[in-house]
Design goal:
Butyryl-CoA Dehydrogenase, subunit A, domain 2, Butyryl-CoA Dehydrogenase, subunit A, domain 3, 4-stranded mixed β-sheet, about 400 residues, 3 domains, 13 helices, alpha+beta, binds flavin-adenine dinucleotide, Butyryl-Coa Dehydrogenase, subunit A, domain 1
Length: about 400
Amino acid sequence: MRIYPQISLATPGDSFRADLVQTLTDGLSRWKDALNAGWIEDDQQGCFGTGRWQALVDAGLTGLVTSEDFGGMDLAAAELAEVLEHLGYICEDAGLGFSLATHLCSTCVPLKTFGSDALREELLPDLVSASRVGAHAITEAHSGSDAFAMKTTAVRDGDAYVISGDKCFISNAPIADICVIYARTHPTKGALGGFSAFAVDCDSPGFTIGKPRKKMGLRTAPMADLYLSDVRVPASRLIGREGQGFVMLDAVMRWEILCVFAIQVGEMRRQFEACLAYAKERQQFGARIGSFQAVSHRIADMHMRLQSARSWLARMVAALEGGGQASLEFAGAKLAISEAHVANAMDAVTLHGGTGYMSETGIEAQMRNAMGGLIYSGTSDIQKNRIAAILGL
Ligand SMILES: Cc1cc2nc3c(=O)[nH]c(=O)nc-3n(C[C@H](O)[C@H](O)[C@H](O)COP(=O)(O)OP(=O)(O)OC[C@H]3O[C@@H](n4cnc5c(N)ncnc54)[C@H](O)[C@@H]3O)c2cc1C
C-alpha cells in the first residue's frame, strides 16, 4: 500500500501504455527473490551478481529503451520512470540497478538515437538480450567535471579510426563487451564539433581493461579503468557524425539521470516505508520511538524529501516528453534527488541505531550507495553551476 499520494509520472497528451507498465512491474515483483539473492554478501566482497543480473535480463529490463525492431520495448520516459522506480522499490541491490542503467544509457540510448541503421542492426539485438553488455568511457585522470578536456584521440586512417588514451572510473568495464569511447577527433575545435563517440569491442587489440576498482558504495556494480593503445576501430563504428560527441553526451546524460534517479526514488520509497514501520514498532523507555518528537520529525523530514524527489522525477519526465525547461529540470532533479537520497539514507542509519550501523542489515550500504549519486552524472557543484547560469549568474 502506498503511504503517500502518488504523483503521476504520465503527462497530459502522452501515450502512456499502462498495460505494458503493469506487466513489467508485475513481472519484476515475481523476480523479487532472485533480484535480491545474496546481495549483502556480494556487496561486502565487491562482487557482481551474475544470478541477479540474469533475473533482470529474464524480466526483460535490458530491452526497455530499444525499439521493437531490435527486440526491445521502446518505453517512453514516463513508462521507463515507472518501471525503474518499481525496480528500485523491490530490488535492494543498488549496484545491480546502477549496472542496468549504465547498460541502457551508455550504449543502447546513443545507438538508438544517433547510430546508423547498420550499426543498430549489428549491436542492438545483442544488447537487448544482454549477450553483450554495454559501458561508456568519458572520464580521464585529468578531466572529470571538465569532461571535454579529455586527451584521448581518434585519428582517421583509411576505413578506420585509431584510438589512444586512458579512461578511468568506468562502470560495467569488467563485464562489458561494447564500450562507447568518447575521443577528440579534431585537433583544435572545442566541445562543440571537436569530439566523437565510437562503439568499440572491448576485446579489440590494444584495448586493456584494468583490474576491478574497489569503492565506497555500489560495490556490486563493477568498475575499472581502460587503457587504449592504437585501437583500430572500423569507421562504421562511429556513432552519429564526426564531431557529434558533445551533443550525444548531453542527450545520454539526460536519459542516464532519468534512469538512475528513477531507481533511486524507488529505493527511497522502500527505505522510508521500512523506517516508518520501525519507528512504530521499536520500543524504548516504554514507548514507541516514533512517539519521541526527535524521531517523528526525522520521519517527517524523510517523507518530505521523498515527496520532493518524486516531484522532481515527474518534472524530468515532463521535460523529456517535451513540455519543460529541460536543462533546468535535469540539473534541479539530479541535484535534488541525489541530495535527498543521501540525507534520507543517513537518517535511516540514525533511526535504526546500532542495527542501522551493522552491515548484515543492508542499511549502512544504502548510505554508501547514495553518496555516489552526488558525484556521477555531474557533481552537485556542477549542477548548481548550471542552475546559477540558467538564472543569469
Ligand atoms: C560510482 C561512479 C560511477 C562512475 N561511472 C562512470 C562511467 O561509467 N564512465 C565515466 O566516464 N565516468 C564515470 N564516473 C566518473 C564521474 O563521471 C566523475 O567522477 C565525475 O564527473 C567527477 O569528476 P572527478 O572525479 O574528476 O572530480 P573533479 O571534477 O576533479 O571534481 C572534484 C571536486 O571539485 C568540484 N568541482 C570541479 N569543477 C568545479 C566547478 N567548475 N565548480 C565547482 N566545483 C567544481 C567537484 O564538484 C568535486 O567536488 C563515475 C564515478 C562514480 C563515483
